[in-house]
Amino acid sequence: xxxxxxxxxxxxxxxxxxxxxxxxxxxxxxxxxxxxxxxxxxxxxxxxxxxxxxxxxxxxxxxxxxxxxxxxxxxxxxxxxxxxxxxxxxxxxxxxxxxxxxxxxxxxxxxxxxxxxxxxxxxxxxxxxxxxxxxxxxxxxxxxxxxxxxxxxxxxxxxxxxxxxxxxxxxxxxxxxxxxxxxxxxxxxxxxxxxxxxxxxxxxxxxxxxxxxxxxxxxxxxxxxxxxxxxxxxxxxxxxxxxxxxxxxxxxxxxxxxxxxxxxxxxxxxxxxxxxxxxxxxxxxxxxxxxxxxxxxxxxxxxxxxxxxxxxxxxxxxxxxxxxxxxxxxxxxxxxxxxxxxxxxxxxxxxxxxxxxxxxxxxxxxxxxxxxxxxxxxxx
Length: 380
Description:
CATH class of the largest domain: Mainly Beta
Oligomer: single chain
Radius of gyration: 31 Å
Helix content: under 10%
């Protein structure tokens, strides 16, 4: 048995053949076991309330069909489960949860929030993610698992406060993390209670007529729409934006009263999948938009006017900054095509002319383009 930091408090193994009591997180735990070969099962009994979540690990030295366990809570209720255990066995591929995300989330009642649990590799037919609270799997009502394993919860209530467990499984490999959700009362909690009991929140939808793919350049400001239909339903809807499954925290991201998200000035790493989640007490809708941010397209080293002796080599530089940039050259408006011998392109986009002759004279233009954007520079 260990705490969330991985510190072992109680280790039941064949080296311990006596009963012992250990204080853990405010609870006094009594460990008991019979002698080897005895039919008396291993038992851990706790007295007093626990002040921190604890992890019980059941491990065997050889692969088996799993270990059945049962534990009793102080209120007399019991919980049963099945914990797959493993020991000295080889498994191909594993599963892990990113522990760099915060292990606590604060929210106001009525908001929709994301409990981060980014699983690698992502959930699939062979990788499952299960969310639990107080040992009980969560219902799909108000709880929606995201593609990366994180959990969307909303609208939250004060009673949602507590420890949540994210458990990722891949065959016999497992990883887990605990996240504490703290919900405070806020103005949003008062709105639903002001409605008569027989009146439900109006049904709504998210407008999907605009393109789900947005392409912008660095330095610009992006507007990602999340229009609620009908607009009158906005009063009873909570809107939350996430990027790649994570809550937005950058001050450059502003959510407006109509649900629109503006981001600016844009950076290259703002590219990603943005999800607008709209939730009421009885409904949840989502829309995803792909934002692609192209780095600012610039010619940082432009070709300059040069004179070279006939028969020598001429180098016209053209260094460009940007993402996925294509470079082409033209002479007096006619495309110049490399032939691998007398006309070459350098790795950074420059034009190399070998054995120049009088007919090579003219105005040379470097054309750089990416997507719908282009820049050019000319030299003679």
